[in-house]
Design goal:
The complex is a heterodimer of chains A (about 400) and B (about 350).
Chain A: H1 17-49, H2 80-112, H3 118-133, H4 136-148, E1 158-160, E2 164-167, E3 170-173, E4 175-178, H5 182-210, H6 216-235, E5 239-242, E6 245-246, E7 251-252, E8 255-257, H7 259-286, H8 289-297, H9 302-332, H10 344-356, H11 359-388
Antiparallel strand pairs in A: 1-2, 2-3, 3-8, 4-5, 6-7
Chain B: H1 2-20, H2 28-35, E1 38-43, E2 51-52, E3 58-59, H3 61-74, E4 80-85, H4 90-95, E5 101-107, H5 110-114, E6 118-120, E7 125-134, E8 148-153, H6 157-168, E9 173-178, H7 181-190, E10 195-199, H8 200-209, E11 216-218, E12 225-233, H9 237-255, H10 263-269, H11 273-279, H12 285-288, H13 295-302, H14 306-313
Parallel strand pairs in B: 1-4, 1-5, 8-9, 8-10
Antiparallel strand pairs in B: 2-3, 5-12, 6-12, 7-10, 7-11, 7-12
Helix pairs in contact in B: 3-9, 3-13
The chains are: A alpha+beta (about 400), B alpha/beta (about 350).
């Protein structure tokens, strides 16, 4: 006997399973929205009742304080909104450089841990065990005081040819700025790169059709050097340099790589590389040994086996935990506040919060920014993950 | 069904908790009396103002102000608990109700008095911002600091004043900001920065903590006004009056030469009407403030008058040896002036 369809309601609304499901879902959503609204309203009422200003108008007020490192132009009379952007760029700088360094070092470590050479294997193990187990804040302090401590003061800087100076205020190097020959140079460079892309495509097609290899690398190098080089000969140097000079207290001019940036990037890269090394090792060991044996029997050298056969398959296992490590590094960059590096947390959720007193708004903005950064990183990594996923037959 | 019920129950419970958390302003005195102690926000280690000694006791001018409040309300200066706060957390802790009074060398400015929902009750210490440099740099005046690297504590009025001073004198500088004053002093010692800037009282305190204090000198320029005082929440008039008049009582006691040694005797034997009114022998001024009659006697006996507190913590009787200067009484060349109790 066929079961009755659900188009006819049996009994009242309360006993019909479909209707009940809908009712409870609607009630749950309404309850969550009502709760969220209640929290928001309660906070607003209390803030007003106690005379604490709320709202985001403070972002237009002048900041009034200086910042050590600002990648965009900044002066004391700029607004708190500008401080936000300066802090954000500083955080992104540390995160980006840290991620790149940590990945390189981590991959090396992971492969080294599986090396057949006993010494390399042990060194990698010792490295990982040490740097994985010490809290990142302590590592940051260590690098900061280890980097700053032995360096001399500005008056006794170590110098390289009198244009690069190393002292405990940082590394001062000449800073480039664009001259009149900048645009012709850029045009020449773009043209050379376009030619390189076309050349490599042509060489690949030729190799697939006829089997003849072409020295793509050397030809591209020649193109990139000769075409912009000819432009420099014709128009002159595309860059003007401002050279650092010792003045009364400091070396002025040029660009300074502050020790805070160096120490936090190094500390975070070294710390995260230990975790990435283990992830890479797990990925490589997940690839079945039959693959390695088959590749070796085809005559591939061990380096080629790793590069062409093992790692592409291992990436399936490596990429998701790698995403987590990148997110950890980005969030750990907020520890920069402890050594005076002007990142997002130190500037915005520190100085600006203290001066305006608006804790809720500044904290909400900071948390949203970190959330946005983390979501972007995981989005990009997930796209990459989908692209390299093996298509099963 | 079970899961939906439990989710709704949890939501209900959490919203009740949230509702209960909305504290009422205007009831701090009642809450303090019910608790049995005053919760006082102080700094996380500033010699002379609020710091912990080797035995774990809190000492300092800001600490003594809080103990005086406890002596006034409860008759016992030990009925106070201290919360050490960094410069970033101090206002949020007071706004949220976590502490009852913030006594943490905080500068009285218009924006803090108005936009944060807080009120300053008075000035404990008139201070100013100065510079501490290493003698080996050969600098004798702040106007010679063009191009220097300066260590500062983040988020304080210090940063703003520094920027204003250098801008108005057409000088450039590089700021390095730290979370705590200890870190900025350590950085000065390591040579990362050339000069440390902060309130002058803090400079003397930090210099005393350095490995070689004699190698550093405080420059003569004072570049800002920094009146430091305690804060309470807005909308809470009785508590505001109590905190304000506690400080005034200590100043009045010094003016009338009442010390912790002679206060009890003077309370019994005085014929000076000002003293009698202050110490509660005459009039009901304590009751007006919702305090016991002998509130000033308790304050002066257990904590001391303003002069004693100053001497013990930052003056001649301490390591810092700061002069009274602006903090002397009005009739002795300073600006500390308390309205009369009558």
């Amino acid at each position: 006997m066929p079961v009755a369809t659900s188009s006819r309601r049996h009994g009242s609304l309360l006993t019909d399973p479909q209707a009940r499901a809908w009712i409870f879902q609607i009630l749950a959503v309404a309850a969550v929205i009502a709760f969220g609204w209640f929290l928001f309203d309660n906070t607003q009422t209390n803030l007003q009742h106690r005379g604490i200003t709320s709202g985001f108008a403070f972002l237009d007020n002048p900041a009034g304080f200086g910042i050590t490192q600002h990648l965009i132009d900044y002066s004391e009379s700029d607004s708190y909104g500008r401080v936000f952007w300066v802090g954000l760029l500083n955080t992104l700088l540390v995160s980006a450089v840290g991620i790149v360094l940590a990945t390189l070092l981590g991959f090396l470590l992971g492969i080294a841990r599986l090396s057949s050479n006993w010494l390399i294997r042990q060194l990698a193990t010792v490295y990982i065990e040490i740097f994985r187990n010490i809290p990142p804040l302590l590592q940051i302090f260590f690098w900061y005081f280890a980097v700053i401590g032995p360096l001399p003061g500005p008056r006794n800087s170590l110098s390289l040819g009198d244009i690069i100076f190393l002292n405990n205020r940082g590394v001062q190097m000449p800073a480039p700025s664009a001259s009149e020959a900048w645009w012709p140079f850029m045009v020449a460079l773009m043209a050379a790169l376009a030619l390189v892309v076309l050349l490599s495509r042509w060489a690949r097609a030729r190799r697939l059709a006829t089997g003849q290899p072409f020295p793509v690398f050397w030809a591209s190098l020649a193109l990139v050097v000769l075409i912009p080089g000819a432009c420099v000969l014709l128009y002159g140097s595309p860059l003007n340099w401002s050279v650092p000079e010792l003045q009364r207290f400091n070396i002025r001019g040029g660009w300074v790589l502050i020790p805070e940036l160096v120490s936090i990037t190094m500390a975070l890269a070294i710390y995260t590389a230990a975790f990435i090394g283990e992830t890479v090792r797990a990925g490589i060991q997940a690839v079945s040994h039959g693959q390695t044996e088959a590749a070796a029997s085809l005559g591939l050298r061990p380096g080629q086996v790793l590069r062409l056969v093992v790692i592409p398959q291992a990436l399936r296992v490596i990429v998701p935990p790698l995403t987590s490590q990148y997110l950890n590094l980005t969030k750990n960059s907020s520890l920069a506040a402890a050594i005076g590096y002007p990142d997002m947390v130190s500037l915005f959720a520190g100085t600006v919060l203290n001066q305006t007193g608006q804790a809720i708004e500044t904290m909400a903005i900071t948390m949203s920014v970190y959330l946005a950064i983390s979501l972007s990183i995981s989005l990009l990594m997930n796209l990459y993950n989908k692209r390299i996923a093996l298509v099963e037959r | 069904m079970q899961r939906v019920k439990s989710i709704l129950a949890v939501l209900g419970a959490v919203s009740l908790l949230a509702a209960g958390g909305a504290a009422q302003a205007g009831a701090t005195l009642d809450a303090v009396k019910k608790k049995g102690f005053v919760q006082c926000g102080v700094s996380d280690g500033l010699p002379g103002f609020s710091y912990v000694d080797a035995q774990g006791r809190y000492l300092g001018i800001d600490v003594d102000v809080c103990r005086a409040i406890a002596a006034a309300v409860f008759g016992d200066a030990s009925k106070v608990r201290f919360t050490p706060l960094t410069a970033k957390e101090r206002f949020t802790a007071l706004q949220s109700g976590e502490i009852d009074v913030l006594s943490r060398n905080t500068t009285w400015t218009s924006s803090r008095d108005s936009a944060m929902g807080l009120n300053f009750t008075g000035v404990t210490y008139y201070d100013g911002q100065g510079f501490l440099v290493n003698k080996s740099l050969g600098v004798s005046s702040a106007k010679e600091l063009d191009g220097a690297t300066v260590c500062i504590q983040a988020g304080t009025t210090t940063e703003l004043n520094l920027s204003d001073y250098f801008r108005s004198n057409g000088m450039k500088y590089t700021p390095i900001t730290y979370d705590t004053s200890d870190e900025s002093a350590k950085s000065l010692e390591s040579g990362r920065c050339d000069v440390l800037t902060s309130d002058q009282s803090q400079l003397y305190a930090q210099r005393a903590k350095l490995a070689k204090p004699d190698e550093y000198v405080v420059l003569p320029e004072v570049i800002s006004k920094e009146p430091l005082g305690p804060l309470v929440r807005q909308g809470d008039e009785e508590w505001f009056d109590i905190v304000r008049w506690t400080l005034f009582a200590m100043l009045n006691a010094e003016e009338l030469n009442i010390t912790s040694q002679n206060v009890e005797q003077m309370a019994k034997e005085t014929r000076n009407p000002d003293v009698a009114r202050l110490l509660g022998t005459e009039g009901e001024y304590g009751r007006d403030l919702q305090l016991p009659r002998d509130w000033v006697v308790k304050i002066v006996k257990q904590v001391g008058n303003y002069g004693e507190v100053f001497d013990r913590n930052v003056g001649a009787g301490s390591e810092l040896k700061i002069e009274r200067g602006l903090n002397a009484l009005w009739n002795q060349g300073g600006v500390q002036y308390a309205p009369p109790v009558r």
